[in-house]
Design brief:
2 copies of one chain form a homodimer. By secondary structure, the first copy, chain A, is an all-alpha fold. Chain A has a single domain (about 15-145), classed as Ribonuclease iii, N-terminal Endonuclease Domain, Chain A (Orthogonal Bundle). Helix content of chain A is about 60%, strand content about 0%. Chain A has 7 helices and no strands. Chain A has helices at about 10, 15-20, 25-50, 65-70, 85-100, 105-115, 125-145. In chain A, helix 3 (about 25-50) packs across helix 5, helix 3 packs across helix 6 (about 105-115) and helix 4 crosses helix 7 (about 125-145). The radius of gyration of chain A is 15 Å and the shape is globular.
Chain lengths: ~150, ~150
């Protein structure tokens, strides 16, 4: 995006916490996570359903799924200290928004990455939780290269 | 997007109602509307705030705002008959998703269009409702050229 000026203040003092605890970034990231996951799920189900039916769907990715993904990716340092699941989910969303605004990954690239890393039967709620969590762990691990090393 | 196959069934029998009443498209469009409006609002407030502070924010666009935009754009025929505000908002979201999936407008183009057509003090809730409604009326009027003429 050419909206990089939206993170100029964060970049002037860049740290893991500056990105991961920004509430505005989390709000923008919430919509990015829901959009990319919804399209990824639609594509995945369309490709992996025997009936050849086209599936269009939208699902909000639960806070718990995102919080667990942050922990499994070993990125709790991006969240505020004593962060609960809600805070940690916000942190994942803020990181995704930062990556998108700074043009490290486009919506299409995030979506394609999720499609590639989804697995299991997404029509089963239990399998979907594991599948979505795994895909977001992979995404966070991939994104690390674009993020600062200093914690705060 | 290169995900056009997600609307192959709709395109095989293309009509205003086929697009505007699709529940899956509405779910995908919900995230597109929220993402583009959130970024547009952030950019607009950052550019129009005297303090020069950078504003990052996210706002869900209310169902009532979208329903009124559909009516003002004269596009009620895209919704199901006897549609309530919720149905009509879903119709706007489905139309936006269709436009994006078929690559008529990118996320950036939708966002830039909203930025250009927003007006008023978005920090005032009343002015924001009018501003957001006006921007979506303009967007729908612009989008008409990409939509079919036949109703059903």
């Amino acid at each position: 995006m050419v909206y990089n000026f939206l993170v100029k203040d964060i970049e002037s003092n860049l740290s893991q916490k500056a990105i991961g605890t920004d509430k505005g970034l989390a709000k923008i990231g919430d919509a990015i996570v829901n959009l990319t996951y919804s399209v990824a799920k639609s594509v995945y189900l369309t490709k992996n359903t025997n009936s050849k039916a086209i599936v269009r769907t939208g699902t909000k990715v639960g806070k718990k799924i995102l919080a667990e993904a942050l922990k499994k990716a070993g990125m709790k340092d991006f969240a505020r200290s004593r962060a609960d699941a809600h805070d940690m989910a916000d942190t994942v969303e803020a990181i995704v928004a930062y990556i998108w605004i700074t043009e490290k990954m486009s919506i299409k690239e995030i979506t394609d990455f999720l499609i590639e890393h989804l697995e299991g039967d997404l029509n089963s709620r239990i399998e979907e939780i594991a599948g979505a969590r795994g895909a977001f762990v992979s995404l966070l691990n991939f994104i690390k290269q674009f993020l600062p090393d200093n914690k705060s």
